Amino acid sequence: MSSPAGSNAKVQPFAWRWVFASMMLFIALELALGEGMAHLLAGRVLSDGTSLLMRNGLQLAAFFTGGAIIGVVSPKLRLLEPALGAVGCMVLIVVMTWMTPIRFYGYGGVKLFAACVVSFGVALAGAWIGERVMGNV
Fold first, then answer.
1. Residue 75 in 3-state DSSP?
2. Helix crossing, 16-40 with 48-73: angle to 10°?
3. What span, in angstroms and rounded, lies between the C-alpha atoms of 60 and 78?
4. Could you give the dihedral angle defined by the CA atoms of residues 58, 64, 67 and 69, in that order, rounded to the nearest 10 degrees?
5. How far, in whole angstroms, is CA 106 from its chain's centroid?
6. Rounded CA gap, 94 and 107, in Å?
7. Which of 19, 20, 109, 133 has fewest C-beta within 10 Å?
8. Residue 109 in 3-state DSSP?
9. Which pTM was predicted?
10. C-alpha span between 45 and 78 (Å, rounded)
């Protein structure tokens, strides 16, 4: 079966380099957003819960923004790569928690699965917005 001419013209083959580029971009954005937030909140006292909420919010903001950036700068259509990059970042965090003596921050099982699903969805939404801006979807 052949597809109609042009229906796959915008689809690119899967590329791991875009997954790893997404991961690096997500980390850089989270650091930049975190630095800005640190200056904004300097000298203020936050509860542990509020601090954790803000850190997780920064992470999700980085996934969405980074996904949108990848959607804009990547050639043709790239939706899966930034979403998998977000999952890769979550896996990297889990690996880092294995070396952390504080179990409060530990991920595992259901928490890890939920974090990966949410991260995948947020980065995918960002990538879709970026691709939409570029007219690819």
1. coil
2. 140
3. 19
4. -80
5. 19
6. 6
7. 109
8. helix
9. 0.83
10. 41
Residue 128 sits at the vertex; the CA angle it makes with 53 and 16, to the nearest 5 degrees, is 90
Do 123 and 83 touch, CB atoms closer than 8 A?
yes
The pLDDT of residue 5 is 47
How far is 119 from 7, CA to CA, in rounded Å? 29
What is the distance between the alpha carbons of residues 132 and 59, in angstroms, rounded to a whole number?
A: 23
Low-confidence ranges of the chain (pLDDT < 50): 1-6
pLDDT at 27: 95
> What are the tokens at 83?
């979403």
Whether 1 and 65 have beta carbons less than 8 Å apart is answered as no
DSSP 12: -
Note the pLDDT of residue 53.
85
* CA angle, residues 95, 96, 99, in degrees to nearest 5: 105
Burial classification of residue 75, based on how many CB atoms lie within 10 Å of its CB (0-12 exposed, 13-18 middle, 19 or more buried): exposed
Look at residues 37, 33, 66, 32 and name the one whose alpha carbon lies nearest to residue 50.
37
Q: Which two tokens stand for residue 90?
A: 């979550």
At 125, which amino acid appears?
A: A
Note the pLDDT of residue 89.
Answer: 94
